[in-house]
Specification:
alpha+beta; four-stranded mixed beta sheet; binds flavin-adenine dinucleotide
């Protein structure tokens, strides 16, 4: 992936937007444990940021995926993880399958307003009993007349307390697990949907995370995305973009974590010189910077292949794994050099230490990424 003038302009303009419209409010949203998604998405939508890679027909810009990657990377400039995550859910996790396989009616009704920012979307895959093992989900959508009747529960769903619709993965038949699932658009105000709980977390405070119950929830069958029984396949495709997005989002966040630590340790004195003047400290920061640039290389390489139309399951999994590892290693190492200040609640590095921990778990845990990579290396043991 080669960065062009257009990519750089996108990053510059979005950085300005973040500085003016997002970062001044982050502390308030973190304290409230929710951010006003409709208000923020409305502003992003009006500037065209929510549809960079979506078809022009539905209000998108029709650009290739490298632009999503640059946007994800730039969102690393936001001073928390929760807001970028919700934006990523809207642009690259809940909507790719709808854009690709949804009927025109569905795209008019749900995709177009997600691109303008008038509607907030969430993606419902994980359940109380199944996260890593997506094939094992239990939520069902049974045909009844022209409708589906949905029963089950979805857990950990980002933005679900304020979302207008969910891209839901449910079992629509008793066929084998990889062929019995469908993706269905479910409006969140449908009777029978219960927002059972706002889940309290150790980080990502400004993002609302819900447990959602479905009790005989009735939606028309025409709300299904694409073909019945193809939901698992569509979701796996959707995961490629989610994983590239997650890897890209880490790059700038990690770089800024290192930069903030350089600034702090340059000023802070101990034993007659700055903390940064210790070779142990500046060598460690140089090592971490090298790791972040390696992540950039891997992510851009994967993106280049993806834009060229290749299957990047292996590359995207490697990039997501590396990002997860570094989101733990870099803030942890940096926090150390802030001393007691690093251990305080409002410190930007301690916030990243908490928020970043999710990167090794959400959207496929590190071990799931390792399993995928091993599959491509043909070293994975036969399923038990
Ligand atoms: C803040 C937050 C936001 C989220 N947002 C969403 C969302 O919007 N939509 C959505 O659908 N989901 C969402 N998730 C769910 C997330 O994707 C899952 O938590 C994740 O996939 C892991 O599933 P699990 O929690 O059920 O862990 P489990 O599947 O119970 O796994 C627990 C641990 O076991 C280990 N493990 C699992 N499989 C293997 C293996 N094969 N080999 C070795 N070890 C293994 C891993 O270390 C893993 O972390 C979110 C989660 C969080 C915490």
């Amino acid at each position: 992936m080669q960065l062009t003038h257009e990519h750089e302009e996108l990053a510059r303009n979005l950085t300005r937007f973040i500085d003016e419209e997002i970062n001044p409010h982050v502390d308030e949203w973190e304290a409230a444990e929710i951010f006003p998604a409709h208000e923020v998405f409305g502003k992003l939508g009006r500037l065209g940021y929510l549809g960079l890679t979506k078809p022009e027909e539905w209000g998108g810009a029709g650009l290739d995926y490298s632009y999503s990657v640059v946007m994800a990377e730039t969102l690393g400039h936001v001073r928390c993880g929760g807001v970028p995550m919700a934006i990523g859910v809207q642009t690259d996790m809940a909507t790719p399958a709808l854009a690709r396989f949804g009927s025109d009616e569905l795209r008019r009704q749900f995709l177009a307003p997600a691109i303008t920012g008038d509607m907030v979307a969430c993606v419902g895959v994980s359940e109380p009993g199944a996260g890593s093992d997506v094939a094992a989900i239990r939520t069902t959508a049974r045909r009844d007349g022209g409708d589906y009747v949905i029963n089950g529960a979805k857990m950990w769903i980002t933005s679900s307390l304020q979302a207008d619709w969910m891209c839901l993965l449910a079992n629509t038949s008793d066929d084998p697990a990889h062929r019995n699932k469908s993706l269905i658009v479910v409006p969140m105000d449908t009777p029978g949907i219960v927002k059972a709980k706002k889940i309290r977390k150790i980080g990502m405070f400004s993002s609302d995370t819900g447990l959602i119950h479905f009790d005989d929830v009735r939606v028309p069958q025409r709300y299904r995305i694409g073909e019945e029984g193809k939901g698992f396949t569509y979701q796996m495709m959707q995961f490629q973009e989610e994983r590239l997005w997650a890897a890209a989002n880490a790059i700038r966040a990690l770089g800024e974590c290192i930069d903030m630590t350089i600034d702090y340790t340059r000023d802070r004195q101990a034993f007659g010189h700055s903390i940064l003047d210790n070779q142990y400290v500046h060598f460690r920061l140089a090592e971490l910077k090298t790791e972040v640039e390696a992540l950039r290389g891997l992510t851009y390489l994967a993106t280049g292949h993806y834009v060229a139309g290749r299957d990047v399951t292996e590359w995207a999994s490697m990039a997501k794994l590396k990002a997860g590892r570094l989101m733990r290693e870099v803030p942890d190492a940096c926090l150390q050099y802030w001393g007691g200040m690093g251990y305080t609640w409002e410190n930007p590095v301690s916030r990243m230490f908490r928020d970043g921990r999710l990167a090794s778990i959400g959207g496929g845990a590190d071990e799931v990424m390792l399993g995928i990579i091993c599959k491509y290396m043909r070293t994975l043991a036969a399923p038990r």
